[in-house]
Amino acid sequence: MALYKAYPKKGKTCKVTFELPVEATVGVSKVSLAGDFNNWDPSCHSLSRNKEGLFSITLVLEQGREYQFRYLMDESRWENDWAADKYSPSQYGNCDNSVVIV
Hints:
mainly beta; 48% strand; globular
């Protein structure tokens, strides 16, 4: 898994690409991204699969913030990002959320 950040020379946003490698999605047909940037609604951001089999999506996020997120695979299994900047305890259940800092 990978997080790529692209900061413009001027501005207050950052393009963040969330990418899942093939080995993290074996047998998976759909991946969604849910986090505090979309009210934890997995229907807002579906990742696209490229010809190499990598799932990815790029979002524009406001700089100077930390965003919690998780991936929902095939609408049944929640996963964290192995490359997250850090992890934070979830309010729901006994798990952590991934965090990206921009």
